[in-house]
Amino acid sequence: MTTRAGFVALIGEPNAGKSTLLNRMVGAKVSIVTHKVQTTRARIRGVAIEGESQIVFVDTPGLFRPRRRLDRAMVAAAWSGAADADVVVLLIEAHRGVTEGVEAILEGLKERAQGSRVALAINKIDRVQAEVLLKLTQAMNERFTFEETFLISAEKGHGVDDLRAWLAGAVPQGPWLYPEDQIADLPMRMIAAEITREKLLLRLHQELPYQLTVETEGWEERKDGSVKIDQIVYVMRDGHKGILLGRKGETIKAVGRAAREELEGFLGHKVHLFLQVKVRPGWLDEAERYSEMGLDIRDGG
Fold first, then answer.
1. Could you report the per-residue pLDDT of 194-240, keeping only the tens digit for each?
2. Using an 8 Å Cβ cutoff, are 86 and 171 in contact?
3. Measuring CA to CA, which residue among 210, 199, 192 is closest to residue 257?
4. Which residues are CB-contacts of 261 (< 8 A; sequence separation ≥ 6)?
5. Which of 11, 185, 270, 291 counts the most CB atoms within 10 A of its CB?
6. How far is CA 32 from CA 15, 38, 262, in A?
7. Of the candidates 99, 107, 103, 108, which has an alpha carbon nearest to the alpha carbon of residue 81?
8. Is the four-CA dihedral 31, 37, 42, 45 of positive or negative sign?
9. Whole-model pTM above 0.85?
């Protein structure tokens, strides 16, 4: 029996649907999904089994024009994930077409995807007419030689099975890389921090979310099967702390409640979640914070 296993990098602009596609492929919520851009900081991996193939997805941060040190480190991580992968899938949005950002990614692929198999996935196909899809498919394939083009809706699942089946045949022959029951190679502490950060992003609809980070400080498994999780939310300024706590602590309580419920669903047992908010003005320039997010501070320049 011939087994296959390999790494697949999902790349694209922020909000192209990479995290939604990863979760659909893996069948579990591994990478956080929000309506905000730039939510996937670390290269979160999900593992999918298709027949005799094990497909390890590298969900990279969205590719965009970096302004800050953290942005530059995120973009470097995305290209590094693509360069290290056996197969690269470029995800674009059907209704947005060939944007400036997509043009820039295509140029980057010509430089950095040498030796990788590259496929195109046009997402959110339910938002446009068939003739628009046909023109977009032609335009993209004129700009870059893709092995295959897939028309999908990551949210609704259309076309995703075809893409997964193709990837199963595209990854190299070889032994599986992870135990069969392991869907993510991120430590559970980090997944828990990402879930809480997602809830913060959804709750706070201004620029503040990118000035905060969440770290899981404590993880205690109790005799009754429950887990006690202590997390710290770091913010840049005292004013940010006030926004996060909310009136009489209502905001942080609501965030904690939503995160705890999702963690209980993910872990399958009771969770006691304790959140603290701390002001740490320079966290965006601390190497330790970057490595917590799976990034390298040196990539930020």
1. 899 889 988 886 656 557 888 898 888 899 989 999 999 988 888 88
2. yes
3. 199
4. none
5. 11
6. 12, 11, 11
7. 108
8. positive
9. no
